[in-house]
């Protein structure tokens, strides 16, 4: 898949990947890397070239609106109608696909926004708006979900609850394509993760395999007001520090997914913002 806005710089540069049915696939890249363009091509917000994007076995250049019921899209950007109530926002979308009132109410209850159903969307907090957009994506009971910052703006307890809802849906067979700046969330949700930069996929692997391939496990010694980090493989230095018996505490320190991303890609997720 390739795409350019000006026929000179490629926002998406000849990428190819497969997401298995029932998989949660993370797609992580810095701002300006071409991530949003990729998602728009996958979800037909930009019509892709024929035979370049296939979802559920269908060429996305040729599908009709009835097929789009099988795809749920939850973007971080506020795409709600601010003067309509939360319920009306969902009803407007659901009516296109023949979704009944009970199904709308059920998804609002699942995401704990039912009590705010009669409030205009403009009065929702950022976290509630994110849940309302997610509810709109879920109301058609899609087979595949595209999620952009799925817990953005939420309090930690609500974010944890929403992640549980998503995990339950995945356990029921829903395939998910996730983009997020929250590496902890990506590690919790995703089966595999693609590192993306400058229009290209740099690497694809599981979180565990990334850590095995690129992670550097260290032991941290607190000595007075100093912290000394030593590679776990450096047994000579570890024994020396232990034998000195001047340390206050010892901690195991594993490489984070964000550390590995920077190592592989060369810059952080938030670079370019």
From TrEMBL:
Query: Which protein, by its recorded name, is this?
Result: ABC-2 type transport system ATP-binding protein
- What InterPro entries does the record tag this protein with? AAA+_ATPase, ABC_transporter-like_ATP-bd, ABC_transporter-like_CS, ABC_transporter_ATP-binding, P-loop_NTPase
Keywords of the record: ATP-binding, Nucleotide-binding, Transport
Pfam families the UniProt entry points to: ABC_tran
PROSITE patterns, sorted: ABC_TRANSPORTER_1, ABC_TRANSPORTER_2
Q: Which family does it belong to?
A: Belongs to the ABC transporter superfamily.
Gene Ontology molecular function: any one: ATP binding
Q: Which residues form the ABC transporter domain?
A: 1-223
